[in-house]
Amino acid sequence: MDDGGPTTHDERSEHVVLAGDVGGTFVRLVLARNGALLGVPQELARERFTDLADACGDFLDRHGAGLRIDGVSLGAAGRLQQGQIALTNGNWLIDPQSLANALGLRPGRVHLLNDFAALAWALPTLHADELIAAPGSAAELAGRGRPVGSIDGNRVVVGPGTGLGVAAMIRSAGRWHPLATEGGHVSFAPETPFEYAAAQLAAARFGHVSWERLLSGPGLALLRDAALTEAGLVPDTLDSAMVIETLGRGDAASVRAARSFIELLGAFAGDLALLYEASGGVVIAGGIMPRLTRVLPLEGLRTRFEAKGRYRPWLAGVPLDLMASPWAALRGAATAYIGSAPRERPDAAT
Fold it and tell me: Looking at the domain 9-122+328-338, which fold is it?
């Protein structure tokens, strides 16, 4: 800890911070210094603990070795409102002052941000081997190779999971500025007859049809119901895990749903690239895509990303990648604590 005097960002970067990624099911924690993770992150089942202070205290008892941390920086799966986050899929209310008191920290030493804002903070720090380039565009098949993008260009991260998260990292005046959004809730834009049919099914169930209604775990299940309806069968409303399981067995409705899901994600990612002038690239995170890629090629992802009429040539040069780093949100939270992204490494993705 410090002596009570003012602390600059440079001074703060030399202290050890507890970085966290708090979701509905797991709490991931690690110690960090200057945005770099120290040791192997620990994944704790959230249900084991009464609250976040209990989980953080347990981690520090087992991994802190008597260390007095300077502060805590957390990305959490919920909307930041009045300085607090209520987990979207959990019963925890995370309050920075209460957590600081429980851990014996000075006021202002708990930094709280949305989980996708934490991922946005991580974007400028990612190494090339932490990203998997999306295949499938005609230009790539012709031998263009991976788009390079702009090292100083704005970047976007989007992730389908329980919901659909979106955040951007904006470059201005030589600094990175994270922007958490509710982009998953903008209105869905169908293009094919099947997508129109899926939108009608979603509208009958929910009224407003957002992109999240299709690009999420529940959305994948809804797309399968649309595929069953298209085939003249009765929807059976499987959950996303069961859809992926039946996909692995070659179930026709699940294959139809998953292919549509991949194409829609490409289309939405292309919209985000245009909205945020994301010449630095769009990165796809979230828990669903890694499971889909194990059983289905990503045909259509890059193609729909670029299919924006007059802006196809510009989008052809914008990187579209899948996040391969499991701990990016932790690194982003640690980086956010010191207030600015570190300089990009020579081998960082461009």
Answer: Nucleotidyltransferase; domain 5 (3.30.420)
